[in-house]
Amino acid sequence: MKPYKLLPITKITALFAALALLGGTTSVVASDKNGWSNQALIYILAPTLDGTSGIGPFDTEVDMDAADVFDALDGAFLGVYRGEGERFGIQLDIVSMDLKMDGEGDRGALAGEVKVEQTTVITTASWRLNKEFRLLGGALFNDLSTGVSLTGPSATRQQSAGDDWVDPIVGVAYETPLGAHWDFSGSALVGGFGVGSESVVVLSGSFAYRFNHWSSLTLGYRYLDFDYEDGEGADRFKFNMKQYGPAVGVRFDF
User: Fold this and answer.
1) Structure letter (DSSP) for residue 5
2) 68-119 residue pLDDT tens
3) Kindly report the CA angle at 140 between 136 and 142, in degrees rounded to 5?
């Protein structure tokens, strides 16, 4: 059996995983000191990717812009819930995405489809030190699977690959109002520590414009540096990637 071209799989795997792993958004919550405040955020990302993705013995150098991401997008949901009391808070960031792109193998003799499914959940707890700063701690769970199905006049090629892992994460968040309608927030998270990934770094900053007491528009920028590798031989899975780009979302406070 001749091997078919694996470049589309590793390329789209890198694209999808980097996009999905940029959770952990931050923003100012109008907290009632005597109660619990709630916040929901729906957002999209436009990332640039730079790094290496690998499946089995194959490594692919990745250099992709936001247009490549949206060309491959077949369906997605990206959302955040944040709740906070006077001192303690929690945040849940869920990303579910499906990507689809054309693939080929055996020097063009086979053609078909490459699919990627991703679920990422980032859960953090926070402790407010003062009005501006919060300490963060939690975990990042990532489940990624890829599959390819190619057909031709006399042959069919199919392959699937994937991995899931958990990274402990810690960090700090900063937030401050900027006048009557604007606020700024930023966070820095580090994790992995060899438990799941060797290392992961997430930096984010955003401005929010409040239309009224319950809705805001957020505009921000995020950077992720992620170093993960596990398994050997045909079971090897590698994701060593830098991702950076703008983000936009709509926030609801209730």
Assistant:
1) P
2) 777 877 777 888 899 999 999 999 988 887 777 665 555 555 566 667 777 8
3) 165
* 77 Cβ neighbours under 8 A, 6+ residues apart: 94, 95, 96, 97
Q: How far is CA 43 from CA 22, 136, 146, 216, in A?
A: 11, 21, 24, 12
Give residue-wise pLDDT tens across range 177-200.
Answer: 998 899 999 999 999 999 999 998
Query: Strand runs (DSSP E) across the chain, as ranges?
Result: 37-45, 48-55, 58-64, 73-84, 88-105, 110-128, 133-151, 156-178, 182-191, 199-210, 215-230, 237-253
Tokens of 16: 């999808």
Torsion of CA 166, 170, 175, 181, to 10 degrees: 0
Q: What is the pLDDT of residues 29-62, one digit of tens each?
A: 554 555 899 999 998 878 787 887 777 777 767 7
pLDDT cut 90: percent of the chain above it: 34
Domains of the chain by start residue, with CATH: 7-253 (2.40.128.100)
Contact 12, 101 (CB under 8 A): yes
Dihedrals φ, ψ of 236, to 5°?
-70, 140
pLDDT tens digit string along 54-65? Answer: 777 777 677 778
The DSSP bridge partners found for residue 88 are 127
- State residue 109's pLDDT score: 57
The Cα-based distances of 126 to 39, 129, 219 in angstroms read 15, 9, 23
Cα separation of the two ends of the chain: 59
Q: Pick from 206, 214, 202, 216: which is nearest to 247 by CA?
A: 206
